[in-house]
Write a structure and sequence with these properties.
The chain is built from 10 helices and 8 strands. It has 214 residues and is α/β, with parallel strands linked by helices. Bound molecules: pyridoxal-5'-phosphate (PLP). Pyridoxal-5'-phosphate (PLP) binds next to β8 and α10.
Length: 214
């Protein structure tokens, strides 16, 4: 964790930004609930999970961590919206008006980000840039939903520089739509994301080591 903190601080210096502009979201998918508690003891407050069912199994262990904030960073199917709304503070992966509507119907206040699909990989979820306007309008009509920003995940590459154009595009889209938060950057490329304006970096491997394949 110290190594990650040093990398974040260095990236902030390079980018001329303040450390407190960046929220470190510790990605704890696949790891047991105990690792969330350990990271919390070390001072982390934001945690990212990919799978609704998996986190449902951890919530009883972590629900008493005061001020801890849980982010869903994996794709959400509409039929799991209700469960997700009960577990997470922030859903970073909203990509359709239908999903937004389902979440709003749960009648709990939720922070949302829109996942934007910027690459042509078929498998990736996310809203297309040209669909953002109507989606944002739909979300802003939902009284229980608070839209804070955009999230993206570039195609996997070991070379962080190759992620830069995706991060830059996300930043431009957020500016165009008057959105503040940018969730972008993972273990291998978060420095580049910070240079391009990230407010939330989602880091798993660099904090907790490599995950077993699921
Ligand atoms: C797993 C995951 C991360 C963390 O990736 P690392 O390379 O382990 O830091 C970040 N964002 C999303 C959406 C993920 O699924």
């Amino acid at each position: 964790m110290e190594a990650v903190e040093e990398r974040i601080e260095k990236a902030c210096r390079v980018a001329g930004r303040h450390r407190d502009e960046i929220t470190l979201v510790a990605v704890t998918k696949v790891f047991p609930a105990a690792i969330i508690c350990e990271a919390y003891e070390l001072g982390l407050r934001h945690f990212g999970e990919n799978y609704v069912q998996e986190f449902a199994g951890k919530i009883s262990t972590v629900s008493n961590l005061r001020d801890a904030c849980f982010h869903l960073i994996g794709h959400l199917q509409s039929n799991k919206a209700r469960t997700a709304a009960g577990l997470f503070h922030t859903i970073q992966t909203v990509d359709t008006p239908k999903l937004a509507k389902r979440l709003d119907e749960c009648a709990v206040p939720l922070n949302l980000m829109i996942e934007v699909k910027l690459s042509h990989e078929d498998a990736k979820a996310g809203a297309l840039p040209e669909d953002l306007g109507p989606l944002i309008d739909a979300i802003r009509e939902c009284p229980n939903l608070h839209l804070t920003g955009l999230m993206t995940m570039p195609p996997w590459t070991e070379q962080a520089e190759l992620s830069r154009p995706y991060f830059r595009t996300l930043s431009e889209l957020a500016a165009r739509h008057n959105l503040r938060d940018l969730s972008m950057g993972m273990s291998h490329d978060f420095e580049v994301a910070i240079e391009e304006g990230a407010t939330h970096v989602r880091i798993g491997t660099a904090l907790f080591g490599s995950r077993k394949k699921v």
